[in-house]
Write a structure and sequence with these properties.
This protein has 289 residues and is an alpha/beta fold. It is 40% helix and 18% strand. It has an 8-stranded parallel β-barrel, surrounded by 8 helices. It has a two-stranded antiparallel sheet with strand order 3-4. It is globular. It starts with 5 loop residues before the first strand and ends with a helix. It binds (5S)-5-amino-3-OXO-hexanoic acid (KMH) and zinc ion (ZN).
Length: 289
């Protein structure tokens, strides 16, 4: 039976902790969320890191600590955001790839983002793509609009396959300024994807549930989390990320496409094994062995 890879995007960079107190921002909160989401059926975690004041940061010290902490307490595939916050510099967004994640997001074009602009110049997209391959990081192509698929194809035509040899995309739908979270938009994107690519879909805000149904019906995987969704149902704030993963896992099971195991997700994406490296460096750090 085909299964469904569930990604959790627990934090994001655009919501203030004061506006959503359940948002996991500290290391302890991130680890607690990661464990609960793994238990609920997630295979991959899309990480945006916050500093001691809960502000988004791409500082390598914070990011490395977050990756190590998640790896120590879970088996989840750790994907860092190279998108960062709308205010982050290009240098910082490339620099975060030195944190040795398993994967990284790679947005394939500029998009209006509410009243902000999420700027992704072609030169930056190329630079991030090549830097990921050099570091053996598996990219996830973030597609906020149909035109982003054309840019992704141009990238693949010009530079060849990504590290891992497999193309996996995430349709980010319902961002104010991007494509809508509708069945028609999902179908249009899927028809335009390169052969052999896998994809997940994320519906921001109110489009979260309809996009999950559309993705499950059309062979897609799912991304959920408080980065994208802060309201579980009209008038009911999200309690925590795990309940979003639980809902996704239930819908996937009803669709007869149950949650994908972490090992299967690692194999599908072509993830390099880094978990033992973390253990080795901890052992080396304690002087043991
Ligand atoms: N914070 C958004 C502007 C990504 O993680 O790659 C960008 C974003 C995409 O979240
Ligand atoms: Zn993100």
């Amino acid at each position: 039976m085909p299964s469904t890879m569930i990604t959790v995007a627990p934090t994001g960079a655009e919501t203030a902790k004061s506006d959503a107190p359940a948002l996991p921002c500290s290391l302890d909160e991130l680890v607690g969320t990661a464990k609960a989401c793994q238990a609920a059926g997630a295979a991959l975690i899309h990480v945006h890191v916050r500093d001691a004041q809960a502000r988004p940061t791409l500082d390598l010290g914070y990011v490395r600590a977050a990756i190590a902490a998640v790896r120590e307490s879970t088996d989840l595939i750790v994907q860092v955001s190279s998108g960062g916050a709308v205010s982050d510099s290009e240098e910082a967004r490339v620099g975060v790839l030195d944190s040795e994640p398993d994967g990284a997001s790679l947005t394939c074009g500029t998009v209006n983002f509410g009243t902000d602009v999420f700027l992704n110049r072609w030169e930056l997209i190329e630079r991030l793509y090549l830097a990921m391959r050099e570091r053996e990081i598996v990219p996830e192509f973030e597609l906020f609009d149909l035109g982003h698929i054309a840019t992704m194809k141009r990238l693949l035509d010009r530079h060849g396959a990504p590290y891992g040899g497999h193309v996996h995309c995430d349709l980010v739908m319902g961002v104010p300024g991007g494509m809508p979270g509708t069945l028609a938009a999902v179908a249009a994107c899927v028809a335009a994807l390169p052969g052999g690519a896998t994809w997940s879909a994320t519906g921001v805000g109110r489009s979260s549930v309809p996009v999950m149904f559309a993705a499950l019906a059309d062979g897609g995987h799912l991304r959920v989390g408080m980065e994208d969704t802060l309201t579980f149902a009209p008038g009911r704030p999200v309690r925590d990320n795990a309940e979003l993963v639980e809902r996704a896992a239930s819908l996937a099971t009803i669709a007869q496409r149950p949650p994908m195991s972490i090992d299967d997700a690692r194999a599908m994406l072509g993830i390099k094994e880094r978990r033992s490296a973390t253990t080795d460096s901890i052992v080396a750090g304690t002087g043991a062995g």
